[in-house]
Design a protein that fits this description.
The protein has 151 residues and is of the alpha+beta class. The protein has a single domain, classed as 2-Layer Sandwich (Alpha-D-Glucose-1,6-Bisphosphate, Chain A, domain 4). Helices cover 28% and strands 38% of the residues. The protein has 3 helices and 8 strands. A 5-stranded antiparallel β-sheet has the order 1-8-7-6-5, covered by helices on one side. Helix 1 packs across helix 3.
Length: 151
């Protein structure tokens, strides 16, 4: 069984700037309402420690492994609860340059495993709104640090 959650937001900052905010994991405590604490480095093979706070839910700590980290393009990690196949979460951030400037950020996660049917409603009610909140906060953070255009 699997379940997908997908969100998207346009950000008035270039992909490099969005990448800087996204990969500054120790800075998450300052702005991120979903991943409220993060340690580690955004490098393939590294293990992260992420404290996640879903909307109206209980905070949990996960230790995913970074699978991909393509500068200003893609960050992907895989987290598991228990043994493989019980509850696996494959999370991806895609950064795409927009025509005329800025970035489209797509955040998506595929959940797979035996526990998915039992957690599906929790993912819809707590995790998906938390993705949206994180996107908005990331947008604010990236845009506030962009120098104004001169014209």
């Amino acid at each position: 069984m699997s379940k997908h959650l997908v969100t998207e937001i346009d950000i008035a900052a270039d992909p490099e700037r969005v990448w800087q905010v996204l990969t500054d994991l120790t800075g998450y405590e300052q702005w991120n309402p979903f991943i409220v604490h993060a340690d580690g480095t955004a490098e393939p093979g590294s293990r992260l420690t992420l404290r996640m706070q879903p909307v109206d839910g209980k905070a949990t700590t996960q230790r995913p492994t970074v699978l991909e980290a393509r500068r200003a393009e893609r960050l992907r990690w895989l987290g598991r609860v228990g043994v493989p196949g019980l509850f696996d979460a494959d999370h991806t951030f895609l950064l795409e340059p927009r025509d005329g400037g800025g970035t489209t950020l797509r955040q998506n996660e595929e959940f797979r495993g035996a526990l998915v049917p039992f957690l599906s409603r929790t993912l819809d009610r707590g995790t998906l709104p938390a993705f949206h909140a994180m996107n908005q906060a990331l947008k604010r953070r990236a845009e506030e640090l962009v120098p104004p255009s001169t014209g």
